Amino acid sequence: xxxFEFLGNHTYRMVFLGTAAIGLASGALGAFAYLRKxxxxxxxxxxxxxxGALGAFxxxxxxxxDGRRLALLLLGALLVSGLAVAASGHxxxxxxxxxxxxxxxxxxxxxxxxxxxxxVISDGPYPGKGGIQDYLFGNATVITxxxxxxxxxxxxxxxxVMVVFWKEFSLRTFDPAHSAxxxxxxxxxxxxxxxxxxxxxxxxxxxxxxxxxxxxxxxAAAARQWxxxxxxxxxxxxxxxxMGGGLxxxxxxxxxAVPPGPVVVLVLFTVFVVSLLLAPxxxxxxxxxxxxxxxxxxxxxx
Amino acid sequence: MSFLVxxxxxxxxxxxxxxxxxxxxxxxxxxxxxxxxxxxxxxGIVLGYFLTRNPDSPWLxxxxxxxxxxVVLGSEYLTRTGLIAGDAPQGLVFPALFSxxxxxxxxxxxxxxLDTHTVLVGDLNLAGFRQLTVGGLDVGPAALYVMAGVxxxxxxxxxxxxxxxxxATFDPAFARSLGIPTGLLNTALMLLVAVTVTAAFxxxxxxxxxxxxxxxxxxxxxxxxxxxxxxxxxxxxAVGGSFAGFWxxxxxxxxxxxxxAVFQGIVFAAVFVATQxxxxxxxxxxxxxx
Lengths: 302, 290
Description:
Chain B: It is found in: Cell membrane. Chain B: It comes from Tessaracoccus rhinocerotis. The complex is a heterodimer of chains A (302) and B (290). By secondary structure, chain A is mostly helical. Chain A has helices at residues 3-8, 10-35, 41-62, 70-94, 99-123, 134-137, 145-164, 166-174, 176-181, 186-207, 212-224, 230-255, 260-278, 284-301. In chain A, helix 3 (41-62) crosses helix 4 (70-94), helix 3 (41-62) runs antiparallel to helix 11 (212-224) and helix 11 crosses helix 12 (230-255). The mean pLDDT of chain A is 89. By secondary structure, chain B is mostly helical. Chain B has one domain: Orthogonal Bundle (ABC transporter involved in vitamin B12 uptake, BtuC), CATH 1.10.3470. Helix content of chain B is 79%, strand content 3%. Chain B has 13 helices and two strands, in the order H-H-H-H-H-H-E-E-H-H-H-H-H-H-H. Chain B has a two-stranded antiparallel sheet with strand order 1-2. In chain B, helix 2 packs across helix 10 (182-223) and helix 3 (58-81) runs antiparallel to helix 4 (88-106). Chains A and B meet through helix 3, helix 4, helix 5, helix 9 and helix 11 of A and helix 2, helix 4, helix 5, helix 10 and helix 12 of B.
């Protein structure tokens, strides 16, 4: 299927736009997480989104609402993921357990709780429970028009928070001590976490919770190789994320049996490897050329 | 051996095998690396199954462990280039390897009977189902013996290299100056973690194995200040927690490995709260001000 047929098809167009929006938001917010050296917190967010979304589903069904409404599930995921980030931060601050261990604990325990909820749901007589398995590996083939609207709205919210608080975010990223001194310490951290949580939870259903971490880390790491300026890096990272999301789903639809999440990740990983090897001014390849040039100059003078 | 006894033993032996290297992973600030390794073994398991056709083959175990080691070596390389910042390197490598694994599974490349669901959470009861018979006598699940072998291997490693591991963990620079090959020791530890994760894969899956490896050690870390005592406490919590978690899941008819993970989380939360009240000056004070 060529790209035009792909985009002419309503279902595929929804999927394409949805994953591109997800990639755009996680790429943009991922740039800040990357520069703050806290990329892996996105893994905690995505795993904690499982019990959040499933809990919201249960509550909605018990209240007699439609449990499949994406906005509802996202709200649950948002609350529980936010709680998970706060919990891992609190454990690391208030005890001698270090932050990596705190993240690992929160990630696996929240995920375990999610699996318990999943058993409760799959054993129970709940309407509309089909497709809850999608959260694990993602299923982008079922993005409806309403889903797309929700995804775009939440992505816009995440990016909006980033744009409005741009100055605070960049100060906190590059000079945390000065930022804390000005009174923008923990509050800005909280806001950055909220924006990242927004960007990550919208991807969990389409890309899968296991692989969302790649959509946060990989575009940012690739973009970093091409530029030294923050606005350029954030924009480039968002673009790479959107491109990877869209192109990845296109390839996955063409392959048939393969879920889009892994394909998106491999597309992004390819972009990253190319950036790492070939980006001008900063890459592995650039260094080799530089070294050869210096060697030659040295030989000529000797 | 009855099925239930076999499965309980399997749960307990898995917890012990995981907890031993887990203590060192927690102390070395490599807890999230367990997450990376546990995902990266997947392509190795699929390829290993394609070549050996035997899920308990030691070759599959070794091959999968080597693919898990790719995360460690790959992220070390990326860090060494100086071009990738912070904790990003492992976050770059493991999703890519895991994706390759998922694609191989979903293309039914090697008709390995891995439900993509099982990949993440494992299935203790399924793992306990394949019984081993010796001379017509049913001696319990085959996975139990694999896991026990790994537990013995981990125990022997910690026993033999205990002083060196201790020094390399707490003061790597001093350890190097004494001529201890810290890099080699580190790689050996990571290889053992990868072997353990692979062996525990059927039991606990890629995500819940982190609960068995990291959480008991973290609880013990809060309770003690000596390495020897920490290892002992970790083992007690691992055995007690997996035993209690197993029965809890059994009576609630809940998935076993998820039940064990959540139970370990509850133990950690209890230890965390209990140790909070004992403190007067928060050690994390400097971090909180940041």
